[in-house]
């Protein structure tokens, strides 16, 4: 998906954002004396429509807004 979006100039690939983000976060953490947590594998199926339980409340809120304000723009 990221490749298609990047080719259509909708935005960068997520993987292309990792290094710039890590540089910025490392600088911020160094200034505060904090350490970044160790890398851990990230498993996500959200882009394919499979979400964990924590998304339920967020989804309910978003559906409420759409149903309460049809055609709303924010």
Rounded to the nearest angstrom, the radius of gyration is 18 Å
> Which class of secondary structure composition applies to the elements?
mainly alpha
Major β-sheet, in short? none
What is the chain-wise order of helices and strands? HHH
Helix content: 40-55%
List its salient traits.
mainly alpha, extended
What is the fold's blueprint, element by element?
Blueprint: H1 2-7, H2 14-32, H3 55-68
Please tell me about this protein's structure.
The longest helix is centred in the first third of the chain and has 19 residues, at 14-32. This protein has three helices and no strands. It has a domain at 1-36. By secondary structure, the protein is an all-alpha fold. The protein has helices at 2-7, 14-32, 55-68. The chain starts with a helix and ends in a 6-residue tail after the last helix.
Summarize the structure.
This protein is mainly α and 74 residues long. It is 53% helix and 0% strand.
């Amino acid at each position: 998906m990221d490749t298609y979006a990047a080719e259509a100039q909708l935005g960068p690939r997520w993987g292309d954002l990792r290094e710039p983000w890590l540089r910025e976060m490392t600088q911020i953490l160094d200034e505060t004396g904090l350490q970044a947590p160790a890398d851990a594998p990230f498993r996500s199926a959200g882009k394919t429509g499979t979400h964990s339980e924590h998304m339920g409340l967020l989804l309910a809120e978003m559906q409420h807004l759409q149903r309460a304000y049809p055609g709303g723009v924010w």
